[in-house]
Amino acid sequence: MIRKESLILLLFSLSFAAPVAKQETENRPKTTVLGTSAATIDFVTSQQVLDEALRFSQILHTYFPGYGNPYRFNGYGTGEGQYVCTTFASEIFWRAGWPVSFETWKKIQINTLEQGVSLPDLLRAGDPRMKGIVHALTSAGLGMEVSFENLQPGDWIQYWYSSGDRVKGHVVLVLDTQTLEDGLHVRVMGANESTHGVAELSLHLLDEAGNNRMVRAFAVRPLMIKKAAMPGFSASTTDPLQASGPSWLHPRRYQSSGLGALAPQDF
User: Fold this and answer.
1) Alpha helices (H) along the chain
2) Residue 100: band (very low, low, confident or very high) from pLDDT cuts 50, 70, 90
3) Is 132 in contact with 264 (CB distance < 8 Å)?
4) How far apart are CA 105 and CA 135, in angstroms?
């Protein structure tokens, strides 16, 4: 049995100990974990853009029966539910809350060239506008150009390749990389003519000696940036036809607005 004097002494000790513990808790410095609230609420990272690309690709394949089958639903183009490589990139940025201005969008499309300008001549001359998405992001202070040896998931590649007697351009999102005996292979995602819509591709970018196997190729890493406000748009929507940005962001509405045609990435 506890003696009365001991119980009084115990209660007296606890009455002084509790405020001390509370004071220590209040004085303890508050910490913010990067990658949680700071990264997911107020800012957008390249990883979040990558996550949105994977999510939106799944939405397209689920929403449109036969997506990717040219006889059922060809997802490559400028109609409803269709994208080309550059418009898919812009759409993903916007849906992730990554701000895309009209000027940045035009540079991604390589739609800032003067009338009658020769694309092959600009490419041979190393004109920065031919870097497409790389030029668009770096010139706006929204990204940094990276080497192919330092590629990581979430980076974007603008490359030009030979196709018969023509040269074609393409924009893709890096999913992962693998170095094999014959060089650097990159698993990428984009809206591809060959796959009739958004799908993954394997890109053999560098040979075993580290030489670029493309006519020209460039890479960019988007910087972490403050999330853009998107009134009326729900990021959780599973409807790919929901307008997620201004009219110029969408091929059909852009072309019908009288602003001009999308610049093709082949010649």
Assistant:
1) 4-27, 37, 46-63, 85-95, 102-108, 119-124, 133-139, 251-256
2) confident
3) no
4) 11
Residue 111's nearest CA partner among 80, 142, 90, 141 is: 90
Contact 198, 177 (CB under 8 A): no
Helices (H), 167-263: 251-256
**Coil, helix or strand at residue 22:** helix
| Token pair listed for 21 | 């513990």
DSSP β-ladder status, 143-145 and 225-226: unpaired
* Secondary element (H or E) of residue 184: strand 183-192
For 14, other C-beta atoms within 10 Å of its C-beta total 8
Helix (H) or strand (E) segment spanning residue 261: none
Exposed, middle or buried: residue 191 (CB in 10 Å: 0-12, 13-18, 19+)?
buried
Alpha carbon distance 143, 225 (integer Å): 10
Residue with tokens 């790919």: 240
Integer Cα distance of 19 and 109 in angstroms: 64
Q: What is the largest CA-CA distance in the chain?
A: 101
% of the chain with per-residue pLDDT over 90: 44
Contacts for 60-65 with beta carbons within 8 Å, 24 or more apart? Answer: 60/197, 60/198, 60/240, 61/198, 62/238, 63/238, 63/239, 63/240, 64/240
Token pair, residue 152, equals: 């990581």
pLDDT value at 132 more than 60:
yes
Record the tokens describing residue 103, joined without a space.
């000027």
Sign of the C-alpha dihedral computed for residues 53, 58, 63 and 64 taken in this order: positive
Note the pTM of the prediction, 2 decimals.
0.76
